Amino acid sequence: MGKDIKGKELGKGISQRSDLLYVGRFTDRYGKRRQKVFSKLQECRQWLADAQFEDEQGDCAFDKEIRVKDWYLYWIDLKEKTVRPNTHRNYRDRYLRNIDPVIGKMKLKDVKPFACQQIMNRMAEQGYTSSTIYQARIALFNMFDYAVQNDVIIKNPCNKTVKANIGKEVSKKEALTIEQQKKFLYGIKGNAYENQYAFLLQTGLRTGEMVGLRWSDIDFEKRILHVNQTMEYRYNVGEWRIGPPKSQAGYRSVPLTDEAIEILRRQKMKNAMCKVLPIEWKDYIFLCRKGTPVKNSTYDTMLQKMCDRICIPRFSMHVLCHTFATRCIEAGMKPKTLQTILGHSNIGITMNRYVHTTEDEKRREMMSISESLKVI
Question: SS3 of 285, please?
Protein backbone atom coordinates (compact mmCIF):
# COMPACT_ATOMS: atom_id res chain seq x y z
CA MET A 1 0.00 0.00 0.00
CA GLY A 2 1.34 3.43 -0.93
CA LYS A 3 1.41 6.34 1.50
CA ASP A 4 1.46 10.11 1.34
CA ILE A 5 4.21 12.20 2.95
CA LYS A 6 2.32 12.13 6.26
CA GLY A 7 2.13 8.35 6.29
CA LYS A 8 -1.56 8.06 5.32
CA GLU A 9 -2.49 5.04 3.20
CA LEU A 10 -3.37 6.02 -0.39
CA GLY A 11 -4.11 2.60 -1.83
CA LYS A 12 -2.18 0.01 -3.77
CA GLY A 13 -0.03 1.45 -6.53
CA ILE A 14 -0.20 5.09 -5.41
CA SER A 15 2.40 7.10 -3.48
CA GLN A 16 3.31 10.75 -2.89
CA ARG A 17 6.73 12.24 -3.59
CA SER A 18 8.51 14.85 -1.51
CA ASP A 19 7.48 17.52 -4.06
CA LEU A 20 3.82 16.65 -3.21
CA LEU A 21 3.11 15.07 -6.60
CA TYR A 22 1.30 11.71 -6.70
CA VAL A 23 2.67 8.72 -8.57
CA GLY A 24 0.52 5.89 -9.92
CA ARG A 25 2.28 2.71 -10.98
CA PHE A 26 1.55 -0.91 -11.83
CA THR A 27 3.00 -3.80 -13.80
CA ASP A 28 1.04 -4.68 -16.94
CA ARG A 29 0.35 -8.17 -18.26
CA TYR A 30 3.58 -8.09 -20.27
CA GLY A 31 5.65 -7.43 -17.15
CA LYS A 32 6.32 -3.82 -18.12
CA ARG A 33 6.37 -1.25 -15.32
CA ARG A 34 3.94 1.62 -16.07
CA GLN A 35 3.69 4.83 -14.08
CA LYS A 36 2.42 8.40 -14.34
CA VAL A 37 2.73 11.53 -12.18
CA PHE A 38 -0.20 13.76 -11.15
CA SER A 39 -0.73 16.89 -9.08
CA LYS A 40 -4.12 15.66 -7.80
CA LEU A 41 -4.79 12.40 -5.99
CA GLN A 42 -8.17 11.82 -7.66
CA GLU A 43 -6.65 12.13 -11.13
CA CYS A 44 -3.98 9.63 -10.16
CA ARG A 45 -6.56 7.16 -8.89
CA GLN A 46 -8.65 7.57 -12.04
CA TRP A 47 -5.68 6.97 -14.34
CA LEU A 48 -4.61 3.89 -12.39
CA ALA A 49 -8.13 2.39 -12.48
CA ASP A 50 -8.51 3.09 -16.21
CA ALA A 51 -5.06 1.80 -17.13
CA GLN A 52 -5.44 -1.39 -15.10
CA PHE A 53 -8.88 -2.05 -16.55
CA GLU A 54 -7.61 -1.54 -20.10
CA ASP A 55 -4.67 -3.85 -19.38
CA GLU A 56 -7.01 -6.55 -18.07
CA GLN A 57 -9.35 -6.26 -21.07
CA GLY A 58 -6.57 -6.59 -23.60
CA ASP A 59 -5.69 -4.44 -26.57
CA CYS A 60 -8.45 -2.33 -28.05
CA ALA A 61 -8.49 -3.04 -31.75
CA PHE A 62 -9.89 0.35 -32.72
CA ASP A 63 -8.92 1.65 -36.11
CA LYS A 64 -8.84 5.26 -37.17
CA GLU A 65 -12.25 4.93 -38.87
CA ILE A 66 -14.18 4.20 -35.68
CA ARG A 67 -17.44 6.10 -35.30
CA VAL A 68 -18.22 8.24 -32.26
CA LYS A 69 -21.07 5.93 -31.27
CA ASP A 70 -18.84 2.84 -31.27
CA TRP A 71 -16.19 4.59 -29.20
CA TYR A 72 -18.87 5.76 -26.76
CA LEU A 73 -20.07 2.17 -26.21
CA TYR A 74 -16.54 1.08 -25.27
CA TRP A 75 -15.91 4.17 -23.14
CA ILE A 76 -19.20 4.08 -21.20
CA ASP A 77 -18.72 0.39 -20.39
CA LEU A 78 -15.34 1.27 -18.90
CA LYS A 79 -16.79 4.18 -16.92
CA GLU A 80 -19.40 1.94 -15.32
CA LYS A 81 -16.53 0.24 -13.52
CA THR A 82 -14.47 3.30 -12.63
CA VAL A 83 -16.84 6.15 -11.66
CA ARG A 84 -19.74 6.63 -9.28
CA PRO A 85 -23.17 5.35 -10.45
CA ASN A 86 -24.60 8.88 -10.65
CA THR A 87 -21.65 10.07 -12.75
CA HIS A 88 -22.05 7.10 -15.09
CA ARG A 89 -25.78 7.81 -15.43
CA ASN A 90 -25.13 11.49 -16.21
CA TYR A 91 -22.57 10.56 -18.88
CA ARG A 92 -25.00 8.08 -20.45
CA ASP A 93 -28.01 10.41 -20.39
CA ARG A 94 -26.16 13.36 -21.86
CA TYR A 95 -24.69 11.25 -24.66
CA LEU A 96 -27.93 9.53 -25.65
CA ARG A 97 -30.10 12.64 -25.41
CA ASN A 98 -27.79 15.37 -26.68
CA ILE A 99 -24.48 14.15 -28.12
CA ASP A 100 -25.44 11.13 -30.23
CA PRO A 101 -28.11 12.92 -32.35
CA VAL A 102 -25.50 15.46 -33.50
CA ILE A 103 -22.22 13.53 -33.93
CA GLY A 104 -22.99 9.86 -33.19
CA LYS A 105 -22.59 8.75 -36.82
CA MET A 106 -19.43 10.78 -37.45
CA LYS A 107 -15.98 9.24 -37.48
CA LEU A 108 -14.16 10.02 -34.26
CA LYS A 109 -11.22 11.60 -36.09
CA ASP A 110 -13.51 13.91 -38.09
CA VAL A 111 -15.12 15.66 -35.11
CA LYS A 112 -13.98 19.28 -34.81
CA PRO A 113 -14.59 21.92 -32.10
CA PHE A 114 -17.32 23.38 -34.31
CA ALA A 115 -19.32 20.14 -34.10
CA CYS A 116 -18.91 20.06 -30.32
CA GLN A 117 -20.18 23.62 -30.11
CA GLN A 118 -23.19 22.63 -32.21
CA ILE A 119 -24.17 20.20 -29.45
CA MET A 120 -24.04 23.00 -26.89
CA ASN A 121 -25.93 25.42 -29.15
CA ARG A 122 -28.66 22.90 -29.87
CA MET A 123 -29.15 22.24 -26.16
CA ALA A 124 -29.46 25.99 -25.53
CA GLU A 125 -32.07 26.25 -28.28
CA GLN A 126 -33.99 23.39 -26.68
CA GLY A 127 -34.18 25.29 -23.40
CA TYR A 128 -31.57 23.44 -21.34
CA THR A 129 -29.95 25.24 -18.41
CA SER A 130 -26.27 26.18 -18.50
CA SER A 131 -25.53 23.64 -15.76
CA THR A 132 -26.98 20.77 -17.82
CA ILE A 133 -25.14 21.94 -20.94
CA TYR A 134 -21.96 21.98 -18.87
CA GLN A 135 -22.61 18.36 -17.85
CA ALA A 136 -22.82 17.44 -21.53
CA ARG A 137 -19.51 19.21 -22.14
CA ILE A 138 -17.87 17.26 -19.32
CA ALA A 139 -19.09 13.96 -20.78
CA LEU A 140 -17.93 14.96 -24.25
CA PHE A 141 -14.51 16.10 -23.06
CA ASN A 142 -13.91 12.93 -21.04
CA MET A 143 -14.97 10.66 -23.89
CA PHE A 144 -12.59 12.35 -26.35
CA ASP A 145 -9.81 12.68 -23.78
CA TYR A 146 -9.82 8.92 -23.29
CA ALA A 147 -9.44 8.53 -27.06
CA VAL A 148 -6.46 10.92 -27.01
CA GLN A 149 -4.83 9.06 -24.12
CA ASN A 150 -5.14 5.80 -26.08
CA ASP A 151 -3.73 7.30 -29.31
CA VAL A 152 -7.00 6.81 -31.20
CA ILE A 153 -7.11 10.53 -32.06
CA ILE A 154 -4.42 13.21 -31.83
CA LYS A 155 -6.33 16.13 -30.29
CA ASN A 156 -9.42 16.57 -28.14
CA PRO A 157 -11.96 18.54 -30.23
CA CYS A 158 -13.85 19.56 -27.10
CA ASN A 159 -11.26 22.20 -26.31
CA LYS A 160 -11.43 25.56 -24.53
CA THR A 161 -13.19 27.20 -27.50
CA VAL A 162 -16.30 25.10 -26.83
CA LYS A 163 -18.53 27.16 -24.55
CA ALA A 164 -21.25 25.72 -22.34
CA ASN A 165 -22.41 28.77 -20.41
CA ILE A 166 -25.06 29.65 -22.98
CA GLY A 167 -28.26 28.13 -21.55
CA LYS A 168 -30.99 29.28 -19.24
CA GLU A 169 -29.96 30.36 -15.78
CA VAL A 170 -31.45 28.32 -12.97
CA SER A 171 -33.34 30.31 -10.38
CA LYS A 172 -31.30 30.42 -7.19
CA LYS A 173 -32.43 27.99 -4.51
CA GLU A 174 -33.46 30.03 -1.51
CA ALA A 175 -33.92 28.67 1.99
CA LEU A 176 -37.36 28.86 3.52
CA THR A 177 -37.96 31.80 5.80
CA ILE A 178 -38.81 31.00 9.41
CA GLU A 179 -42.46 31.83 8.74
CA GLN A 180 -42.53 29.64 5.63
CA GLN A 181 -40.89 26.81 7.55
CA LYS A 182 -43.46 27.06 10.34
CA LYS A 183 -46.30 27.10 7.81
CA PHE A 184 -44.80 24.11 5.99
CA LEU A 185 -44.32 21.98 9.11
CA TYR A 186 -47.83 22.77 10.29
CA GLY A 187 -49.29 22.04 6.84
CA ILE A 188 -47.67 18.60 6.42
CA LYS A 189 -49.00 17.21 9.70
CA GLY A 190 -50.68 13.90 8.93
CA ASN A 191 -48.99 13.58 5.54
CA ALA A 192 -47.57 10.15 4.71
CA TYR A 193 -44.07 11.65 4.46
CA GLU A 194 -44.29 14.10 7.36
CA ASN A 195 -41.50 12.38 9.28
CA GLN A 196 -39.15 12.38 6.29
CA TYR A 197 -39.57 16.08 5.50
CA ALA A 198 -39.23 17.07 9.15
CA PHE A 199 -36.16 14.85 9.58
CA LEU A 200 -34.27 16.58 6.76
CA LEU A 201 -34.94 19.93 8.43
CA GLN A 202 -33.37 18.54 11.62
CA THR A 203 -30.31 16.85 10.08
CA GLY A 204 -29.53 18.40 6.67
CA LEU A 205 -29.30 14.97 5.01
CA ARG A 206 -29.60 14.61 1.25
CA THR A 207 -32.64 12.70 -0.01
CA GLY A 208 -30.59 9.65 -1.06
CA GLU A 209 -28.85 9.57 2.33
CA MET A 210 -32.20 9.62 4.12
CA VAL A 211 -33.64 6.89 1.88
CA GLY A 212 -30.61 4.70 2.57
CA LEU A 213 -30.60 5.31 6.34
CA ARG A 214 -30.86 2.17 8.51
CA TRP A 215 -31.60 1.59 12.17
CA SER A 216 -28.09 0.14 12.48
CA ASP A 217 -26.79 3.61 11.48
CA ILE A 218 -28.44 5.18 14.54
CA ASP A 219 -26.76 5.27 17.94
CA PHE A 220 -29.59 6.28 20.28
CA GLU A 221 -27.34 6.15 23.34
CA LYS A 222 -24.86 8.65 21.90
CA ARG A 223 -27.62 10.43 19.94
CA ILE A 224 -25.73 10.24 16.64
CA LEU A 225 -26.54 8.98 13.15
CA HIS A 226 -23.85 7.69 10.81
CA VAL A 227 -24.04 8.35 7.08
CA ASN A 228 -22.54 5.34 5.32
CA GLN A 229 -24.49 5.01 2.08
CA THR A 230 -27.00 6.52 -0.31
CA MET A 231 -29.85 4.77 -2.08
CA GLU A 232 -31.74 5.62 -5.25
CA TYR A 233 -34.40 3.92 -7.33
CA ARG A 234 -33.33 3.46 -10.95
CA TYR A 235 -36.37 3.55 -13.20
CA ASN A 236 -34.42 2.43 -16.29
CA VAL A 237 -33.58 -0.92 -14.67
CA GLY A 238 -36.46 -1.06 -12.20
CA GLU A 239 -34.41 -1.62 -9.08
CA TRP A 240 -32.85 0.06 -6.06
CA ARG A 241 -29.17 0.95 -6.24
CA ILE A 242 -27.08 1.43 -3.12
CA GLY A 243 -23.89 3.45 -3.36
CA PRO A 244 -21.34 5.36 -1.29
CA PRO A 245 -21.89 8.97 -0.15
CA LYS A 246 -21.25 11.74 -2.66
CA SER A 247 -17.63 12.17 -1.55
CA GLN A 248 -15.24 10.92 1.12
CA ALA A 249 -16.41 13.78 3.33
CA GLY A 250 -19.92 12.37 2.94
CA TYR A 251 -19.04 9.58 5.36
CA ARG A 252 -19.88 11.39 8.58
CA SER A 253 -21.62 11.42 11.94
CA VAL A 254 -24.49 13.82 12.60
CA PRO A 255 -25.59 14.65 16.17
CA LEU A 256 -29.32 14.20 16.70
CA THR A 257 -31.55 16.87 18.24
CA ASP A 258 -34.41 16.05 20.60
CA GLU A 259 -36.83 16.61 17.72
CA ALA A 260 -34.86 14.26 15.46
CA ILE A 261 -34.95 11.55 18.12
CA GLU A 262 -38.71 12.01 18.48
CA ILE A 263 -39.17 11.74 14.70
CA LEU A 264 -37.25 8.46 14.66
CA ARG A 265 -39.40 7.08 17.48
CA ARG A 266 -42.56 8.03 15.61
CA GLN A 267 -41.22 6.36 12.48
CA LYS A 268 -40.36 3.18 14.38
CA MET A 269 -43.95 3.00 15.63
CA LYS A 270 -45.22 3.63 12.11
CA ASN A 271 -43.07 0.81 10.68
CA ALA A 272 -44.39 -1.54 13.36
CA MET A 273 -47.88 -1.03 11.95
CA CYS A 274 -46.90 -2.39 8.52
CA LYS A 275 -48.80 -5.60 7.83
CA VAL A 276 -45.88 -6.96 5.84
CA LEU A 277 -42.24 -5.92 6.32
CA PRO A 278 -40.02 -7.51 3.64
CA ILE A 279 -36.89 -8.96 5.18
CA GLU A 280 -34.59 -6.97 2.85
CA TRP A 281 -36.02 -3.67 4.16
CA LYS A 282 -36.34 -4.59 7.83
CA ASP A 283 -33.34 -2.47 8.89
CA TYR A 284 -34.35 0.59 6.84
CA ILE A 285 -35.96 3.51 8.65
CA PHE A 286 -38.14 5.49 6.29
CA LEU A 287 -40.57 3.03 4.72
CA CYS A 288 -44.06 3.46 3.27
CA ARG A 289 -47.11 1.58 4.52
CA LYS A 290 -46.22 -1.34 2.25
CA GLY A 291 -42.96 -1.79 4.15
CA THR A 292 -40.73 -0.69 1.27
CA PRO A 293 -38.61 2.46 0.69
CA VAL A 294 -40.19 5.46 -1.01
CA LYS A 295 -38.76 6.31 -4.44
CA ASN A 296 -36.60 9.45 -4.34
CA SER A 297 -38.63 11.30 -6.96
CA THR A 298 -41.89 10.57 -5.11
CA TYR A 299 -40.81 12.85 -2.29
CA ASP A 300 -40.42 15.78 -4.69
CA THR A 301 -43.76 15.06 -6.37
CA MET A 302 -45.60 15.05 -3.04
CA LEU A 303 -43.68 18.14 -1.93
CA GLN A 304 -45.00 20.13 -4.90
CA LYS A 305 -48.57 19.10 -4.07
CA MET A 306 -48.15 20.04 -0.42
CA CYS A 307 -46.74 23.48 -1.31
CA ASP A 308 -49.78 24.18 -3.49
CA ARG A 309 -52.12 23.01 -0.74
CA ILE A 310 -50.38 25.08 1.93
CA CYS A 311 -50.16 28.10 -0.40
CA ILE A 312 -46.39 28.63 -0.29
CA PRO A 313 -44.01 28.84 -3.29
CA ARG A 314 -43.01 25.45 -4.67
CA PHE A 315 -39.55 24.16 -3.76
CA SER A 316 -37.54 20.95 -4.10
CA MET A 317 -36.27 18.49 -1.52
CA HIS A 318 -32.82 20.07 -1.73
CA VAL A 319 -34.20 23.32 -0.33
CA LEU A 320 -34.84 21.49 2.96
CA CYS A 321 -31.07 21.00 3.25
CA HIS A 322 -30.51 24.68 2.39
CA THR A 323 -33.01 25.65 5.07
CA PHE A 324 -31.33 23.46 7.70
CA ALA A 325 -27.94 25.04 6.90
CA THR A 326 -29.33 28.56 7.03
CA ARG A 327 -31.04 27.99 10.39
CA CYS A 328 -27.76 26.60 11.79
CA ILE A 329 -25.78 29.69 10.79
CA GLU A 330 -28.53 31.99 12.07
CA ALA A 331 -28.33 30.20 15.42
CA GLY A 332 -24.57 30.83 15.62
CA MET A 333 -23.12 27.51 14.45
CA LYS A 334 -19.52 27.78 13.24
CA PRO A 335 -19.25 27.35 9.45
CA LYS A 336 -16.56 24.68 9.83
CA THR A 337 -18.84 22.64 12.08
CA LEU A 338 -21.70 22.97 9.60
CA GLN A 339 -19.37 21.86 6.80
CA THR A 340 -18.66 18.55 8.55
CA ILE A 341 -22.33 17.97 9.40
CA LEU A 342 -23.37 18.49 5.77
CA GLY A 343 -20.49 16.36 4.50
CA HIS A 344 -18.90 18.99 2.25
CA SER A 345 -15.25 18.64 1.28
CA ASN A 346 -14.98 22.41 0.67
CA ILE A 347 -16.29 25.07 3.02
CA GLY A 348 -16.95 27.31 0.02
CA ILE A 349 -19.73 24.91 -1.03
CA THR A 350 -21.25 25.20 2.43
CA MET A 351 -21.30 28.97 2.55
CA ASN A 352 -21.92 29.88 -1.10
CA ARG A 353 -24.48 27.27 -2.11
CA TYR A 354 -26.24 26.22 1.05
CA VAL A 355 -26.36 29.18 3.41
CA HIS A 356 -28.69 32.06 2.61
CA THR A 357 -29.21 35.28 4.51
CA THR A 358 -32.91 36.03 4.92
CA GLU A 359 -34.35 39.55 5.03
CA ASP A 360 -35.19 39.11 8.73
CA GLU A 361 -31.61 38.08 9.48
CA LYS A 362 -30.18 41.08 7.61
CA ARG A 363 -32.50 43.37 9.54
CA ARG A 364 -31.48 41.88 12.89
CA GLU A 365 -27.78 42.14 12.04
CA MET A 366 -28.10 45.78 10.99
CA MET A 367 -29.99 46.66 14.16
CA SER A 368 -27.31 44.98 16.28
CA ILE A 369 -24.58 47.21 14.83
CA SER A 370 -26.64 50.38 14.43
CA GLU A 371 -24.98 52.05 17.43
CA SER A 372 -21.54 51.34 16.01
CA LEU A 373 -22.48 53.05 12.77
CA LYS A 374 -23.23 56.34 14.48
CA VAL A 375 -20.36 58.80 14.30
CA ILE A 376 -21.96 61.80 16.02
Answer: coil
**Residue 239: alpha-carbon gap to chain centroid:** 19
**317-330 vs 296-310: helix crossing angle, rounded to 10:** 70
- The whole-model pTM stands at 0.66
What pLDDT is recorded for position 243? 85
For residues 66 and 51, give the distance between their C-alpha atoms in angstroms, rounded to a whole number. 21
CB-based burial of residue 208 (10 Å sphere; 0-12 exposed, 13-18 middle, 19+ buried)? buried
Residues 48 and 22 sit within 8 Å (Cβ to Cβ): no
Last residue of a domain, one of 44, 59, 74: 59
- Give the model's pLDDT for residue 62: 56
pLDDT at 317 (0 to 100):
93
Total structural domains in the chain? 3
C-alpha 253/C-alpha 227 separation (Å) is 6
| Residues across the chain | 376
- Clarify whether residues 284 and 250 are in a common domain: yes
The CATH number given to whatever domain includes residue 105 is: 1.10.150.130
Cβ pair 245, 343 in contact under 8 A: yes
Residue 370 maps to a domain: no
Distance CA 174, CA 353 (A): 9
The answer to whether residues 185 and 153 belong to one domain is no
**85-94 vs 130-149: helix axis angle to the nearest 10?**
100
The answer for 33, left when phi > 0, alpha when psi is -120 to 50, beta otherwise, is: beta
Q: Tell me, what's the pLDDT at 280? A: 93
Which of 178-192, 215-229, 242-256 shows the lowest mean pLDDT across its residues? 242-256
